[in-house]
Amino acid sequence: MLYAPPPNVALRSLTLISMTFFATRAGNSHFVFVGLMSAGLCFAAPAYDFFICATLNRNYVVGSKIVTTNGVFQRDASQGWVHMGYNDTTLTGVAFDPRDRQVIYTSALNGCWRTLDGGRTWQINTGWEITEGRDVAVDPNAPDHVYLAFVNGVAVSTDRGQTWVRRENGLPVRGKYTQTIKVDRTRQGRVLAGCETGIYLTRDGAKRWKRVLATRGTVNDLQQSWHDPKIWVAVTQDDGAWASQDNGDSWSQFPTVPTTDTLYNIAMDPTRPQYLAIGSWAQGVLTTENGGKSWQSRNAGLPEPSRVWRVGIEPGTGRLLASVVGQTLFASDDFGRTWTREALDGSRVNAFITIPR
Fold it and tell me: Is residue 119 part of a domain?
């Protein structure tokens, strides 16, 4: 199966990946394993930009003279972090209009902020009834359509964030707290939402939702594979990690990922489809290099206890990043076997975002 890259990509010599899934069943649990077969080929691979949403409070308290910088940061060519946008400690997500990178949306405590000029000026268009944004996503096949996950459900804009309406038909009256929202990049109006009671799917731009996975706790993160858009992964508050091989219609648990501890997020490597990482307060960093068949704890060299808030995989380099609560950002060039302090002392990263260039 070939990955179809977006336009304006750089040529690289890469490996054609064919993904074969093997499912087994034990009791009431469904296990998904990913097998990989490769053959040397050369094809176009996309270039990516890498962003974080982070707070750099450095133990700031009211009245302190410490100057803090918070919000969206972009990785630059020198491997540093450049602040962009406005200074806000509450940012949880960022999304770009694929037609115009000057149009940016952020989810924040006040709802959803928008800029039309690359961050020089910002405006908030959500009202008092739509606040505490948790995630934001743009439909790449209908870029005027923007989706906001917030603590009381889902809001949708069909005019580039100018006006917003709540679209919650099919979400539960109780338990519709929405932590994460992602748009299927292959189909207009197909969106997955991670809620307090499970994963919900819409095929018509949020006019109707259907629950495709019931969970015991909040779904904290959802990701679509860079290599095969039918593959999705998710992590939960207290119900382990899950994978789907059929566009999110059905889900199976990863068998060796703990189900007793909170898993905050899951990262997928844009160039190595079998490499994934999970960030957790109690488990620290968990990684797999065989598509989820087995997972390893990769905390040697991190501060103890390894209270990891988020993990990310830098595109191109494959560098694994871990945001450790109360510490700084740590980096690993061998996928978690060894760690070094990277940058952003006193920071907490709320989201790692990879955007095709």
Answer: yes
CATH number at residue 285: 2.130.10.10
Rounded to an integer, the average pLDDT of 185-190 is 97
Percentage, residues of the chain above pLDDT 90: 71
Predicted TM-score (pTM) of the model is 0.86
Listed in sequence order, the DSSP H helices in 58-197 are none
Distances (CA, A) of 112 to 10, 84, 129: 33, 16, 12
* Per-residue pLDDT reduced to its tens digit, 28-60: 444 444 443 333 333 445 689 999 999 887 666
Burial of 169 (0-12, 13-18, 19+ CB in 10 A): exposed
Assess contact for 299 and 306: CB atoms under 8 A: yes
Per DSSP bridges, beta strands 263-268 and 133-138 are unpaired
Checking if the pLDDT of 100 tops 80, the result is yes
Inside any domain, residue 233: yes
2 within a domain of the structure (yes/no):
no
Q: Provide mean pLDDT across the span 277-302.
A: 96
CA atoms within 13 A on the CB side of 138: 22
350, HSE (Cβ side, Cα atoms, 13 Å): 25
Is position 255 within any domain? yes
What percentage of the chain carries pLDDT values higher than 70? Answer: 85
Structural domain count of the chain: 1
Which of 226, 256, 225 is CA-nearest to residue 240? 256
Q: Domain residues for 223?
A: 10-356
User: Measured between alpha carbons, how far is 120 from 110 in angstroms, rounded to an integer?
Assistant: 19
